[in-house]
Amino acid sequence: MKVKVVLEKSDEGGYTVFVPTLPGCISEGNSIDEALENITEAIELYLEPIEDDLIISKDVIIKEINL
After folding, report:
1. How many CB atoms lie within 10 A of CB 34?
2. Left, alpha or beta for 5 (phi > 0: left; psi -120 to 50: alpha)?
3. Beta strand ranges found along the chain (DSSP E)
4. Is the dihedral of CA 7, 10, 15, 20 positive or negative?
5. What is the pLDDT at residue 66?
6. Per-residue confidence (pLDDT) for residue 26, from 0 to 100
7. pLDDT per position as a tens digit, 15-48
8. Is the pLDDT reported for residue 67 higher than 80?
9. How far apart are CA 6 and CA 8, in angstroms?
10. In the beta sheet, which residues pair with residue 17?
11. End-to-end alpha-carbon separation of the chain, Å?
12. What is the pLDDT of residue 27?
């Protein structure tokens, strides 16, 4: 899966990075590499399903797919 991210230099130093297609998915880092590492983790957490949010009934099938 490919995701476009936007990196902006921060006034305090380092970089702020966000994902335009994932509202609220934002991170930062002291370097570009660190910011990209941090946003990768943030994206994974953002996309991780929360089991408590699923409404389960006997007619529902839940599957995982790889993107």
Report:
1. 15
2. beta
3. 6-9, 15-18, 26-29
4. negative
5. 86
6. 97
7. 999 999 999 999 999 999 999 999 999 999 998 8
8. no
9. 7
10. 7, 27
11. 6
12. 97
Q: What contacts 7, CB < 8 A, 6 or more positions away?
A: 15, 16, 17, 32, 35, 36
Q: Taking the model in full, what pTM does it have? A: 0.73
Q: Is 2 left (phi over 0), alpha (psi -120 to 50) or beta?
A: beta
CB 42 within 8 A of CB 27: yes
Q: What is the DSSP letter of 35?
A: H
Find where tokens 């130093």 sit: 13
Residues ≥6 apart with Cβ < 8 Å to 16: 7, 8, 10, 26, 27, 28, 35
**Is 80 exceeded by the pLDDT of residue 54?**
no
